[in-house]
């Protein structure tokens, strides 16, 4: 009997192609919207997570001042010193690696090519903290670091713009007017949420301090937390240590801040997840409206096809068969709409994801739920019109004009 | 051939059948106690003035409706005691219908229209096709099987409707003014078709008509007046 009703449903849909299409349009748009939004939202969340994890997992960033930047007026909080670094290394438990950072911007020159970039002065520990890899060449040797030699590791953007295809390792280039030898090229890290992470020149910190910043201050200390330790515990003891070292009295505010990259990651992904949910919910409402659209058309269809129902009843269809026919028709319509919607969502997501610079992630669960939901809409909104059709009296139905 | 009471009990037997439409002060008694026996294989024409209860009686005979009072015995079933679905199954098994307004499914080919009752019987595709084409052949429309009602003349549409009614090889064909919408030439063709089905396929035909010319094809003519059977006479064809 189900076979019969499915045949009849497909015939009825086939007989009114345009109307069937318009009926399902609501479902098509609804499903396409929900799935596209959620797919792109998931992609955005993944992208944010990816960018943050490129900062290094479980890394605490210690900076002077409160929050990002150094605040407006007032005396500038002091930078850190090398002994702060040693203190952190020696007194703090749960630390995997500690790297000092000083920053300076300037122009790099190689054979007449100019490229303005950022110079990071740090130690080899930086590669451990940030899990940076050297694609070509090598890291700094310890004697180069000790002596603050003029050697550098360049990011891929610098390589492309400065060397333009030439092999940079072993070459000498000029940075901020000083000659330096390229010993390595960093593995590509890509476009992050914090600018182009390949547009860097990394040099031994002692060299940068001596030649560029002119003092022995350290503007930032990166602390990698051992996986076996809880980041927030380490963060607390780091804050404790720094308050002590910077002689901050109880009740007085910190003149430094510690950022937990994981915390930033959680906050940002949390935000994108909530956004995804909100947009998804709005789209789900449009799906519901689509369902009401199906019910509306099915009701119209029952009225319009009263005589047809009369014929079927006269021929010997039992009430259940008429009910099933209209119900199956609604379900087939909504399922077809759901499938078309999923297909459109697939196309839209694949097309839009690159524009938004987020990865396309096909989520089987989201697709399955959206499809089942559209089928459920067919059942729920098809039932009422179907029951009305089945309850018709054959004689009245036949007489219907 | 006059009905032979010894040979068989009637296929249809109405006793004191009444039908009241509506309730309370607006209630209208359309049938006031109809007694009627119809023998298997008969060709009955039902005549009478407008509003005399012909269609009401046909609807009850066709198990589309139930009497308000009295008994209706159809092939041994007390129809007045059956529910909707049980009556639907009786129609599916034993009855075929032809209406004044043809009542074919629009945008549906002649063959699909004719196959429809077989679909509800759960017959498979091959059998549906064979029986559908055989029925269309019987009404002379084999070559028109893929035409939709809009592409057929009134007479052709009515013949498709007859094919649909007989495709299940019913015992009884109920036709309420089958020629009401047709010109006299087309009407005579339909009557000849019904006569053929009655004679050669043994189908009992119950037909409402206003036209004596059409009633002339019947073996028995039943006259209705004011919700009662006024008289029963042998037809010209008897
Ligand atoms: N569903 C209904 N509700 C109320 N009254 C009805 C209904 N159907 C029929 N009647 C009334 O019952 C009476 C008999 O109707 P019926 O249709 O049986 O007449 P008929 O003999 O077929 O007439 P006609 O030759 O015009 O078709 C009429 O007076 C009609 O108005
Ligand atoms: Mg009538």
TrEMBL record, chain A:
Signal sequence, start to end: none
TM helices/strands, residue ranges: 21-41, 278-302, 323-356, 368-386
Topological type in the membrane: Multi-pass membrane protein
Molecular function terms from GO: transmembrane transporter activity
Domain of life: Bacteria
Family: Belongs to the ABC-4 integral membrane protein family.
PANTHER family: ABC TRANSPORTER PERMEASE YTRF, MEMBRANE COMPONENT OF TRANSPORTER-RELATED
Record protein name field: FtsX-like permease family protein
